[in-house]
Amino acid sequence: MAITKVWIEEGCIVCNACEAECPEVFKVTDTSCNVNGSVREDGVDNENRDEQSPLSGSTGTDLEAAIEAAAAGCPVEVIKFEKA
Ligand code: SF4
């Protein structure tokens, strides 16, 4: 199993926990949190809520534990992901 896709639903409270846990994937902004374009197939820096771009390369395998920990640690549970 690997994580294929990560996105951020509405409601981020900009607490920085996810970036502290997994900075390769999450970048907190002034108003929300982005899924970094550097680990996405579409290369775009945003929440990936509408795009639903897959993770690129081996990111979803290499960082599976860190992404899951970030999602579990989000206080408002807006980090979502899919596995395949
Ligand atoms: S952990 Fe959740 S609430 Fe905190 S910055 Fe990340 S997405 Fe936003």
Supply the CATH architecture.
2-Layer Sandwich
Secondary structure tally: strands:
4
Mean pLDDT: 98
Shape: globular
The level of helicity is: 10-25%
Fill in the CATH topology.
Answer: Alpha-Beta Plaits
User: Which parts are unreliable, with pLDDT below 50 for 5 consecutive residues or more?
Assistant: none
Largest sheet: 2 strands, antiparallel
Looking at how many chains there are and whether they match, the oligomeric state comes to: single chain
Instruction: Please give the domain count.
Output: 1
Q: Ligands bound here? A: iron/sulfur cluster
CATH class category name: Alpha Beta
What is the beta-strand fraction? 15-25%
First and last CA, distance: 6 Å
Gyration radius over CA: 11 Å
Which class best fits the helix and strand makeup? alpha+beta
Explain what this protein looks like in three dimensions.
This protein has 84 residues and is an alpha+beta fold. It has a single domain (3-83), classed as Alpha-Beta Plaits, CATH 3.30.70. It has helices at residues 17-21, 59-62, 64-73; strands at residues 3-8, 26-28, 33-35, 79-83. A hairpin with a 4-residue loop joins strand 2 and strand 3 (33-35). The mean pLDDT is 98. It binds iron/sulfur cluster. Iron/sulfur cluster binds next to helix 1 and strand 2.
Task: Give the key terms.
alpha+beta, two-stranded antiparallel ribbon, binds iron/sulfur cluster, 3 helices, 23% helix, Alpha-Beta Plaits, 84 residues, single chain, 4 strands
